[in-house]
Amino acid sequence: MICSTDVFKSMILQEFLLEDRLRSEYNYAEVASWLGNLVKVPASVAVEQFLASGVLVFVNAGLTQKAIAELVKVKNTTLVIRAVADVLASCKSDEDNYKSCCRSALCHAIQGSYDWAFGALRVAASKNDNWARHHHLYGLIHGAKGDNERALFELEKALAAEPYAEPRKRIEQARQVVQFLFIDLPQPQHVIV
């Protein structure tokens, strides 16, 4: 059985794949993670030897390897790489920063890191809240989280702001899914006492 949130997750993935060169940029995070996994054992040995030399003698063996392994997960390397991309884009223009933040939101959203995605979208909205892209992504992520009311609100804002036909079709498709879910959901029963 397909869950309604899965529909929105597939729409997020579709937006990710449609975004020009984003998949290749995402590969940088995967490569950084892969390289980190290659060096985590020798790096953790070196860090543990340094710490045991008198700085922090109470560090347990293996603790630094676990910490390094956590740091080099794709989820975390994506955060660093996209943060650098967003900072560099902010040096160019507000429009470039807006686009970069929306791209970052997509990278975080496909990993299920919705809070990070929302953070990137808040930065995008601070650049220009009248553009459609961040509202569209907000709507999809709210849908993926099962918050149909917020999803509908954001998708309607996106639809009102989107000037191009292809994105309008995708936004309208997502909006129709949310409306279908609202109609399909049981309405609360009011009890008269």
Shape: elongated
The count of β-strands is 0
C-alpha end-to-end distance: 38 Å
User: Helicity range of the residues?
Assistant: over 70%
Class from secondary-structure proportions: mainly alpha
Number of helices: 9
Secondary-structure element pattern, one letter each: HHHHHHHHH
Low-confidence stretches: none
- Largest sheet composition: none
Q: What is the strand content?
A: under 5%
Round the mean pLDDT to the nearest integer and report it: 86
Question: Could you name the key traits of this structure?
Answer:
TPR-like_helical_dom_sf; elongated; 193 residues; single chain; mainly alpha
Structure characterization notes:
The structure is a single chain. This protein is elongated. α2 packs antiparallel against α3. The chain has nine helices and no strands. The chain is 80% helix and 0% strand. The longest helix is centred in the N-terminal third of the chain and has 34 residues. The chain is mostly helical and 193 residues long. InterPro entries: TPR-like_helical_dom_sf.
